[in-house]
From TrEMBL:
Gene3D superfamilies: MFS general substrate transporter like domains. This is MFS transporter. Pfam families: MFS_2. The chain crosses the membrane at residues 43-64, 85-103, 109-135, 147-169, 181-200, 318-339, 360-390, 402-429. It comes from Novosphingobium jiangmenense. InterPro entries: MFS_2, MFS_trans_sf.
């Protein structure tokens, strides 16, 4: 088995590995935020049908995550363990994105079903093996923080690019959905081919050889639910995503109805994410200096305080809104960086204790917790603001409804980030322990290793 110390792991490998996140992130925001409205308005697809297809695609994606993670753990090929999955998923993702962003004028149901299926299946085949691959080539405790921060940096850059294109399309031809799709699709496809080549041509692939054993879903479930460290990371990440999702779900309502500044709907997103590009290198340094657990707690406490301060904002204090968006940008993804890095550390500990390789499986359930947290956001936030009497179709809302909107928008994420900090505070795997685990793994004989289910 190839071994490598933290100091010897080149950051260039992480940049190459993370390259595919540029088209993936550049596609994700438009597919989620703009495509449903464009399909309904410009192509006459009923919103109910769009919602049903989206739900089916996301459920398929969630169902595939643990399967792909388990199978990629036990893949043996001359191209490596994870690379074949990334290649296949990447090809499907590119095909699905091309079909979604460049649909025919007479868009039919078969085309839309095939496009969404290719898109969501491609993401499932690509994402979990890619995360597991990063955890395998970045073997050091702090090295994994650097790798996760590089992934987050490229995601932020891609997100800003997509938002900038949305603003440009709105400026050039307001309401022109086809122009928006063309700009989004051009960005995604222009980035996808070179990004996929960079990721797949990464020569680092330090996965050890495996023994073939039968798949056992029960053993896989025990490896997940019997691991308290992993469960802490999953719960903490679900809380983080719920907080982020509540803010994202309600931001346009907050800007348009509470602040009375609808022209800032896309602008505030872009303002925050532009500064978010600075957050990854900042929090990488904090993570290395403090360790992942303390850095994650600090990040989530900061996020909780920033969101809580939103209760003080009013239409006359727009300067405070911008100041908090700036602070939000500088802490954007900070907790996610640490939690994503912790998954590989937990997988190392499990492998040292049991001889089983579970990195792909653990990242698959991490992705599932991520999606569950995002789903909880809309399921909690929208009914709550409706209970307060808020109606986005109304010409004007009552003061009680608007106050309820800002309370959910501020306190919901603040509470979620506080819960995340409390949960991860009990994570008992530090740098010294992980260094000892890596020494044991790097000197252990390969035949003891078993693949994940």
């Amino acid at each position: 088995m190839t071994t490598r110390s933290s100091a010897a792991s080149p950051s260039g490998s992480y940049h190459r590995l993370a390259a595919i996140y540029v088209p993936v992130t550049a596609a994700a925001q438009p597919v989620a935020a703009w495509l449903p409205a464009i399909l309904a308005r410009d192509y006459g697809v009923p919103l109910t049908l769009v919602g049903t297809l989206y739900l089916a695609g996301q459920l398929l994606n969630c169902a595939l995550d643990p399967v792909v993670g388990a199978l990629s753990d036990r893949t043996q090929s001359r191209f490596g363990r994870r690379r074949p999955w990334v290649a296949g998923g990447g090809a499907l993702f590119v095909a699905g994105s091309a079909m979604l962003f460049f649909p025919p004028a007479s868009l039919g149901l078969a085309w839309l079903v095939a496009a969404l299926a290719a898109y969501y299946i491609g993401l499932a085949l690509l994402s979990t093996p890619l995360l597991a691959w990063s955890g395998e080539i970045a073997t050091g405790y702090h090295d994994r923080t650097r790798a996760a921060s590089i992934f987050t940096l490229w995601q932020s850059i891609a997100l800003v690019g997509a938002l900038a294109l949305a603003a440009l399309a709105q400026h050039l031809r307001p309401g022109d959905g086809q122009l928006q799709l063309t700009l989004f699709g051009s960005l995604v496809l222009a980035a996808a081919i070179p990004a996929l080549w960079l990721t797949l041509s990464n020569r680092d692939d330090s996965a050890p050889p495996l023994l073939a054993v039968p798949l056992s879903p029960l053993a896989a479930a025990r490896a997940v639910f019997g691991n308290p460290l992993l469960l802490r990371v999953l719960a903490s990440d679900a809380a983080v995503r719920a907080g982020q999702g509540i803010r994202t779900t309600l931001l346009l309502f907050y800007v348009t109805f509470y602040l009375g500044r609808p022209e800032w709907g896309a602008g505030l997103f872009l303002f925050q994410y532009a500064f978010g590009m600075l957050s990854a290198p900042i929090w990488q340094r904090i993570g290395v200096a403090l360790g992942k657990r303390r850095a994650a707690i600090l990040a989530e406490v900061f996020q909780a305080l920033i969101n809580l301060a939103l209760v003080l904002t009013t239409s006359d204090r727009f300067w405070l809104v911008l100041a908090l968006a700036f602070a939000q940008g500088l802490t954007q993804g900070s907790g996610n960086i640490m939690l994503r890095s912790m998954v590989a550390d937990v997988a190392d500990k499990h492998r040292a204790e049991t001889g089983e390789e579970r990195t792909g499986l653990y990242y698959s359930v991490f992705a599932l917790a991520d999606k569950i947290g995002g789903a909880l956001a809309a399921g909690i936030a929208l009914p709550l603001i409706a209970w307060f009497g808020f109606d986005p179709k109304a010409v004007s809302n009552t003061p009680q409804a608007l106050n309820g909107l800002v309370l959910v928008f501020a306190i919901g994420p603040a509470l979620a980030h506080a819960i995340s900090a409390a949960v991860i505070s009990g994570f008992a795997l530090d740098a010294a322990q992980h260094h000892a685990i890596r020494r044991h793994l790097d000197t252990a004989a390969d035949p003891a290793l078993q693949p994940a289910e």
